[in-house]
Design brief:
Elements lengths: L1 E8 L9 E8 L6 H12 L18 E4 L2 E4 L5 H4 L5 E5 L6 E3 L2 E2 L2 H9 L19 H6 L11 H5 L1 H6 L6 H11 L11 H4 L13 H5 L6 H17 L6
């Protein structure tokens, strides 16, 4: 089948503004969208800039906007987004500076991610042996562990894009939740300063866009709301451990 990839192009060294360029390609309905993009890169226009790594939905590096919605192109099948003769519009992720074409600068995204201390802070003194958990304790924070930091949720968030660019974003709050609800971690105490602010968890307005676009089907909005409740309970209990 024949389709057209309408790709946003932008080279800050030569272009004054982004523009679109169209590339007709022959594909199979079961091909991945990433394969079509790489065909253009390898056989049609070597100047096209696109980021990819594992190409198996694990690294998250090929996230972009496909027909206006955030997707991983390595997990997107052509027939799911286009029929014969259709145009597929490809744009870089929002709310991050465009480096070139479909590549964005993720520095600010990862700075916000690091602000919530996305690492294990032990609630008890370190022990020579592993700290055991019951299965239900592990399940409490299982969903956030699936995050691959692709940035799709951050790009889709209307709060970051249109209202408050200082909002740390869905991915950062989700990563905080992974440790907030870990029974072995110090929890909310070590992350309250970053989360309990107008730019932290409270900036979320429950649009659910982050949950809709997550390629790992993580209930992002649910984790954010659970984190808000954890902050409230923590403060009501006089800053006791959640």
């Amino acid at each position: 089948m024949k389709i057209i990839l309408r790709i946003q192009r932008y080279n800050p060294e030569t272009d004054s503004a982004p523009h679109f360029q169209e590339y007709p390609v022959e594909v199979e309905p079961t091909d991945r969208l990433l394969d079509a993009i790489l065909y253009v890169k390898q056989h049609v226009d070597a100047t096209l800039a696109v980021r990819k790594s594992c190409a198996h939905g694990i690294c998250g590096s090929d996230a972009m906007r496909v027909n206006g919605a955030e997707r991983l192109t390595c997990k997107t099948i052509i027939k799911d987004v286009a029929a014969e003769g259709d145009v597929i519009v490809l744009e870089p992720l929002r709310s991050m500076p465009v480096q070139r074409d479909l590549m964005v600068d993720q520095k600010g995204f990862f700075e916000k991610y690091k602000s919530v201390k996305p690492f294990f802070i032990p609630a008890a003194p370190q022990r020579p042996k592993e700290q055991l958990q019951m299965p239900q304790q592990r399940m409490r924070y299982d969903d956030p562990t699936k995050c691959i930091l692709c940035g799709a949720c951050y790009s889709s968030c209307p709060v970051v894009a249109d209202k408050n660019p200082q909002f740390i974003g869905p991915a950062a709050v989700l990563q905080a939740a992974r440790f907030v609800f870990d029974s072995r971690d110090i929890g909310i105490r070590g992350r309250l300063a970053e989360l309990d602010t107008s730019n932290g968890a409270w900036a979320c307005e429950n649009h659910f866009d982050c949950t809709k676009v997550c390629p790992r089907t993580i209930k992002v909005t649910k984790s954010i709301n659970e984190t808000k409740r954890a902050i409230t309970v923590h403060k009501e209990n006089g800053h006791q451990t959640v």
